[in-house]
Automatic annotation (TrEMBL):
InterPro entries per record: DNA_brk_join_enz (IPR011010), DNA_topo_DNA_db_N_dom1 (IPR013034), DNA_topo_DNA_db_N_dom2 (IPR013030), TopoI (IPR001631), TopoI_C_dom (IPR025834), TopoI_cat_a-hlx-sub_euk (IPR014711), TopoI_cat_a/b-sub_euk (IPR014727), TopoI_cat_euk (IPR013500)
GO BP of this protein: chromosome segregation; DNA replication; DNA topological change
Family named by the database record: Belongs to the type IB topoisomerase family.
Location of the region described as Disordered in the Swiss-Prot/TrEMBL record: 57-208
Active site: Y751 (o-(3'-phospho-dna)-tyrosine intermediate)
Name of the molecule in the record: DNA topoisomerase I
Basic and acidic residues biased stretches: 101-110, 174-208
SUPFAM superfamilies in the cross-refs: DNA breaking-rejoining enzymes, Eukaryotic DNA topoisomerase I, dispensable insert domain, Eukaryotic DNA topoisomerase I, N-terminal DNA-binding fragment
Stated role: Releases the supercoiling and torsional tension of DNA introduced during the DNA replication and transcription by transiently cleaving and rejoining one strand of the DNA duplex. Introduces a single-strand break via transesterification at the specific target site 5'-[CT]CCTTp site in duplex DNA. The scissile phosphodiester is attacked by the catalytic tyrosine of the enzyme, resulting in the formation of a DNA-(3'-phosphotyrosyl)-enzyme intermediate and the expulsion of a 5'-OH DNA strand. The free DNA strand then undergoes passage around the unbroken strand thus removing DNA supercoils.
PROSITE patterns referenced in this protein's UniProt entry, alphabetically: TOPO_IB_1, TOPO_IB_2
Length: 793
DNA sequence: GCCGGAACTTAGGATGCTTAGC
DNA sequence: GCTAAGCATCCTAAGTTCCGGC
């Protein structure tokens, strides 16, 4: 679908998947670094990421200043939304009907339409040969970055206190374990065994090794048996539409233990005065005390919500007395909790084993069900315990009390002819139903959000697997239809109907940037996050020209889970012009797509292809990116480690595309510093080894003494070993750095057709367990069994 | 056609367990 | 044998989509 004379952004800056998320140049850089990987990639890669990180920081500051200016310009006040979503938006969105454009404008835009190009194949070519790699490293000054909102706030105190709390926590933990260590050493001194006993011990050790080997063999056998017993549902005929099962039997959910009152000697203090709380108030106070090390408890909203709900649990007397959270001292409760945590950590092997067995017993009893005469694992058979609601980001309900769920709140779903689970003694179920058109086993309503929670099957079950398979099949269907669909929305960009144009631009973003659909949300009920259809004017900035690119859209918004999406993307002139139009006469808080919602969008999509929704584009683009990246990055001549690295890089490209971020591990800086120190040490060793080799060579020169030649060989080997180890460490450091803020597992589990990975493993002769762990292999058993080498997504 | 709720998938953080390296 | 780091699993919040009722 290339068009003559087109200024094809995709061809200019190929590599579709990689482009998205962080912008074209960054992906040129990425490619450059990837290419260098074949040689000494480590340095290039580390430099690249360090560079990006520093640019992110710079850009963040610029962005903040800009935003403040914008806010001041739009009348100041809250940076948030101006318009209320949902009800008010309904009126706003349909206001005045759909506008039409004049013929003249349409004609003029038709001329520009040739600029529009979306070509997967072209975009997926990694990198551009036109731009020298080194230049890219220099050019990437303004950085295409993406950072967590959380981090933006890090300088504002709250996370500081959390860090402080964590540091204190860590120190105390270290102190306690140091004490334990000392005690242990003392005991060891006292209990030192006589030599005879020691030798007996070594015999025991030997036996243990044999036992270990036997256990391994047993494990292997069990694995084989398990494999044989696996229900190959994918080889069976499907039930008629809507029917999920024909027989379902289970034991009902497992309830958390009742509250165990605190010891009498523990006190709560109000305004410095000792106060004995009633059981209800004490329990809820403990929930708060348990979280004192967490940043949550420093947030005003969290504190206010907690206090409001806590007071509801108090007796009249308590309520009269306790009126200010600031005057509450939960210190003793908090210390008690910490002590319990420590005790848990310091359990002996035996204690741990007893506990493990007890848990296993619970799992065996409640963790499985019989579905159509097959034993299936339940995903979440435990009822959520009570506690304080941990809504993410600026959730208005964070801190509210999540109440204890009783059997009287729970609806059970099972077969009529099955043995209905017994409710716990003295209780009864809210309802028992026999609905085989749904997949859940039990459900209840959550008191905080009013949402229904479900007990469902594990990801490796038939019900989940079948749906997963179906999902990827729909995405594969899109592959053959996508050109037509793109042509259609390209045409729609010049429609006379405003709604149609908005739909086309939204689709362009969903397709090109893998944005989520973006449902409307009720204000005040959840954190202020958006997706494509719910974008507001304040979430984008238009640049006629930026960083040498024309028509650049700068996105900055909080998406699902309050993860920040930040990206600067060059778009076609037509998209750019439409965006300008959509933003005319609007306030920052107004909807960008005021004549569009996810319902309308999905309705349109399903008319283009059965089963097509906005979400399918994400699955399709993620999977196709993986497939193309694997083709690009790996070949059969690489060694195992290199092959795996290429797989991880392909996976990483998808994670970046889908904006799957994670908070850097708490110990990241320390662990990197440790690794760097090791690398330095190893470098010194290498220098020494080289010098020794040189010396040995000198001594052996002209001397036929075999001993001296042997020494040379020995030194040579030592040096090589040193080099290998150094390289390994550098690779590790690079990999760790790359993964610092990227979560790979989400895309692997939810977006990447497993058949692509299975086929890749077969073609590359890589063992599947190198890319999928046990759980993942279980989940994707259907794909593992049905995929051949020649599978194409 | 809109709305709200039900049903399901997707998501990152917390926690516990295992393994590598000293 | 110990410790730190990495990995797996658990947990549950937060999305998307579908569907029935008005």
């Amino acid at each position: 679908m290339k068009e003559c004379g087109a200024v094809n952004i995709c061809l200019k800056s190929p590599q579709r998947g990689l482009q998205r998320g962080t912008g074209v140049k960054k992906w040129h850089l990425l490619h450059t670094a990837l290419t260098r990987l074949q040689g000494s990639f480590a340095v290039a890669w580390a430099l690249f990421w360090r560079h990006v990180a520093s640019e992110m920081e710079k850009d963040k500051k610029t962005k903040q200043v800009k935003r403040e200016k914008r806010e001041a310009g739009s009348g100041g006040g809250t940076p948030g939304r101006v318009s209320k979503k949902v009800k008010s938006r309904g009126v706003k969105k349909s206001q005045g009907g759909d506008e039409t454009y004049g013929e003249k404008e349409v004609k003029q835009e038709q001329v520009e339409s040739s600029e529009f190009q979306v070509d997967d194949a072209a975009r997926l070519q990694l990198g551009s040969k036109e731009e020298p790699a080194d230049e890219d490293f220099v050019q990437e000054k303004r950085g295409k970055k993406r950072k967590r909102q959380k981090e933006d706030e890090s300088g504002k105190g709250t996370s500081c206190s959390s860090e402080k709390a964590a540091a204190v926590k860590k120190k105390k933990r270290t102190d306690i374990s140091a004490e334990a260590k000392t005690d242990k050493k003392k005991n060891e001194g006292k209990l030192k065994m006589p030599k005879k006993e020691e030798s007996e011990k070594s015999v025991t050790k030997k036996k243990t090794k044999e036992e270990i080997e036997a256990a391994r063999t047993l494990k292997r056998k069990l694995k084989e048996e398990e494999e044989q017993q696996r229900w190959r549902w994918w080889e069976e005929e499907k039930y008629e539409a809507g029917i999920k099962w024909k027989f379902l039997e289970h034991k009902g959910p497992y309830f958390p233990p009742e509250y165990n009152p605190l010891p009498e000697n523990l006190n709560f203090y109000y305004n410095g005065e000792k106060l004995k709380l009633g059981l209800r108030a004490e329990e809820v106070a403990l929930y708060f005390a348990q979280m004192l090390d967490h940043e949550y408890t420093t947030r005003e909203v969290f504190r206010n919500n907690f206090f409001k709900d806590w007071r509801k649990e108090m007796t009249l007397e308590e309520r009269m007395l306790i009126t200010d959270l600031e005057k509450c001292d939960f210190g003793e409760y908090h210390n008690f909790h910490k002590q319990k945590v420590e005790e848990r950590k310091n359990r002996t092997k035996e204690e741990k084993q007893v506990l493990k067995e007890a848990n296993q017993k619970i799992t065996d009893e409640y963790g499985f069900c019989m579905l159509d005469h097959h034993r299936e694992r339940i995903g979440n058979f435990k009822i959520e315990p009570p506690g304080l609601f941990r809504g993410r980001g600026d959730h208005p309900k964070q801190g509210l009390l999540k109440k204890r769920i009783r059997p009287e709140d729970v609806i059970i779903n099972c077969s009529k002819e099955s043995h209905v689970p017994e409710p716990p003694a003295g209780h009864q179920w809210k309802e028992v139903r026999h609905d085989n058109t749904v997949t859940w086993l039990a459900s209840w309503t959550d008191n905080v959000q009013g949402a229904t929670k479900y007990v469902m099957l594990n990801a490796n079950s038939k019900l989940k697997g079948e749906k997963d398979w179906e999902k990827y099949e729909v995405a594969r269907q899109l592959k053959s239809r996508v050109d037509g669909i793109r042509a259609q929305y390209k045409d729609d960009l010049k429609s006379k109907q405003m709604g149609t144009r908005q739909r086309a631009v939204a689709l362009y973003f969903i397709d090109k940037l893998a944005l989520r659909a973006g449902n409307e949300k009720e204000e005040g009920e959840t954190a202020d996050t958006v997706g494509c259809c719910s974008l507001r004017v304040e979430h984008i900035m238009l640049h006629d020209s930026l960083d040498g690119e024309k028509c650049v859209v700068e996105f900055d918004f909080l998406g699902k889970d309050c993860i920040r999406y930040y990206n600067k993307v060059p778009v076609t002139k037509r998209v750019f012009k439409n965006l300008k139009l959509f933003m005319e006469n609007k306030q920052p808080g107004d909807d960008l797509f005021d004549r569009l919602n996810t319902g309308m969008l999905n309705k349109h999509l399903s008319s283009l292809m059965p089963g097509l929704t906005a979400k399918v584009f994400r699955t399709y683009n993620a999977s196709i990116t993986l497939q193309q990246q694997l083709k690009e990055l790996s070949n059969a001549l690489l060694n195992q480690a290199e092959k795996l690295l290429s797989y991880n890089r392909a996976n990483r490209a998808v994670a970046i595309l889908c904006n799957h971020q994670r908070a850097p591990p708490k110990s990241f800086e320390q662990s990197m510093a440790n690794l760097q120190a090791k690398i330095e040490g190893r470098k010194e060793q290498l220098t020494l080894a080289k010098a020794e080799l040189k010396k040995a060579k000198k001594e052996a020169k002209g001397n036929s003494d075999t001993k001296l030649q042997f020494v040379v060989e020995k030194k040579k080997k030592a040096m090589q070993r040193c080099e290998e180890q150094l390289l390994k460490m550098e690779v590790q450091a690079t990999d760790r750095e790359e993964n610092k803020e990227i979560a790979l597992s989400t895309s692997k589990l939810n977006y990447l057709d497993p058949r692509i990975s299975v086929a890749w493993c077969k073609n590359m002769e890589v063992q599947l367990d190198k890319i999928y762990n046990k759980t993942q292999r279980d989940k994707f058993a259907w794909a593992i069994h049905m995929t051949e080498k020649d599978f194409e997504f």
